[in-house]
């Protein structure tokens, strides 16, 4: 029996994939084998000795102490792409709202309540203050062409925009997801130079923190409109506010409202609604629960942020999975140290972490003890 702790509400279409005969699911489990979480912070949580996996029902894992999990041999999963369409749709809404001044216009129209027959004339007299440009024919620069960025780029092409994308890690598979009309820019600086609109879809890393700042804004066209539906830390809000005041930036649309941005003219601040659709929550729950089940029952890793993707079919008596520090020839080292017949083996590394699966015949429990003594090994598990 596996004990699963759910933090936040996880859609039943996901948790129902975990058979009740084998899984006990609770929002108060004290020593879980796995955690499924959405946005709740786990940084102050005690990571118990039983904890094997954490699945984030969403893309970002900044609410999970990933480095600490790696040290303890805990696999951390996310659900890339599960909420991509939901975020894409909100980005397109932000794109339009940053142009057409719909938000201030609808707020203004409320002030005409009670004017009776005068409303029509007052509307015609006052509407000129809310004039905004069309997006068709304008240049959109998309920084980051992952699951969401690619969808945004393709949607913008369909809306008649001239779209440029930049991504230093763009794979051939990712290129194939893009409309052929999306032009690949050499770097972010090219995006800054040519774009009328810029949509940011980069991951939050030490290198990308504050990537939109006074210096990069200075490289942009006057009157640029910026969209941030990726991560709050990617943008220096003080620099944005100053550029809005000077007119360098015409509008800033973001899904990450902070106190300093609220009530600033030409800021469209949305309360983190990117993935807040029932479809997105269902998709994320299904993917997260499948990841947990496959890892617990078969040792399969897919979409882990701290361990490599890997799977191996069991043909012997058991699978032995080993999380260790990455090293040359680690699979052969572990197979030799196990002291049992190894029918098959597979190994892969991600940064400084390695994951190895041994398909063994007989003596798996004894082999586990031997493998735990190997230098650099963090965690060993037997799956029968």
Can you describe this structure?
By secondary structure, this protein is α/β, with parallel strands linked by helices. It folds into three domains: 1-82 and 277-305, Rossmann fold, CATH 3.40.50.720; 84-269, NAD(P)-binding Rossmann-like Domain (Rossmann fold, 3-Layer(aba) Sandwich), CATH 3.40.50; 308-384, ACT domain (Alpha-Beta Plaits, 2-Layer Sandwich). 32% of the residues lie in helices and 22% in strands. The chain has helices spanning 12-15, 66-72, 84-100, 102-110, 119-126, 147-158, 172-177, 188-194, 214-218, 237-246, 278-298, 330-338, 364-372; strands at residues 2-7, 23-26, 34-37, 53-56, 75-77, 139-143, 162-166, 183-184, 197-200, 224-228, 249-254, 267-269, 318-325, 341-350, 353-361, 377-383. The strands form three sheets. Strands 8-7-6-9-10-11-12 form a seven-stranded parallel β-sheet, sandwiched between helices. A five-stranded parallel β-sheet has the order 2-1-3-4-5. A four-stranded antiparallel β-sheet has the order 14-15-13-16, sandwiched between helices. The longest helix is centred in the C-terminal third of the chain and has 21 residues, at 278-298. The chain is elongated. It starts with a strand and ends with a strand.
């Amino acid at each position: 029996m596996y004990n699963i702790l759910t933090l936040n509400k996880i859609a039943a279409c996901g948790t129902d994939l975990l058979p009740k005969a084998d899984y006990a699911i609770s929002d108060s489990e004290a020593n879980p084998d796995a955690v499924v979480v959405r946005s709740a912070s786990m940084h102050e949580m005690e990571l118990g000795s039983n904890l094997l996996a954490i699945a984030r029902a969403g893309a970002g894992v900044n609410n999970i102490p990933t480095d600490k999990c790696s040290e303890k041999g805990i696999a951390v999963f996310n659900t890339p792409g599960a909420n991509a369409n939901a975020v894409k749709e909100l980005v397109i809404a932000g794109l339009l709202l940053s142009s057409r001044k719909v938000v201030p216009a609808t707020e203004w129209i409320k002030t005409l309540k009670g004017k009776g027959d005068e409303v029509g004339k007052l509307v015609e007299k006052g509407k000129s203050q809310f004039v905004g440009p069309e997006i068709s024919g304008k240049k959109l620069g998309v920084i980051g062409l992952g699951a969401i960025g690619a969808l945004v780029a393709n949607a913008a092409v369909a809306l008649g925009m001239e779209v440029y994308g930049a991504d230093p890690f763009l794979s051939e598979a990712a290129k194939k997801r893009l409309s052929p009309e999306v032009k690949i820019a050499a770097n972010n600086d090219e995006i800054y130079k040519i774009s009328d609109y810029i949509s940011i879809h980069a991951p939050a890393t030490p290198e990308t923190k504050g990537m939109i700042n006074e210096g990069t804004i200075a490289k942009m066209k006057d009157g640029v409109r910026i969209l941030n539906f990726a991560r709050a830390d990617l943008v220096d809000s003080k620099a944005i506010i100053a550029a809005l005041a000077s007119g360098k930036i015409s509008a800033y649309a973001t899904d990450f409202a902070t106190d300093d941005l609220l009530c600033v003219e030409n800021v469209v601040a949305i309360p983190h609604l990117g993935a807040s659709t029932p479809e997105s929550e269902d998709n994320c729950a299904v993917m997260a629960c499948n990841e947990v089940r496959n890892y617990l029952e078969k040792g399969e890793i897919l979409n882990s942020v701290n361990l490599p993707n890997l799977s191996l079919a069991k043909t012997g008596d058991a699978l032995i999975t080993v999380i260790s520090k990455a090293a040359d020839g680690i699979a052969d080292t572990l197979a030799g140290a196990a002291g049992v017949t190894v029918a098959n083996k597979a190994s892969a590394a991600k940064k400084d972490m390695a994951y190895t699966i041994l398909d063994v015949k007989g003596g798996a429990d004894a082999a586990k003890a031997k493998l735990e003594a190997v230098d650099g090994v963090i965690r060993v598990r037997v799956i029968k």
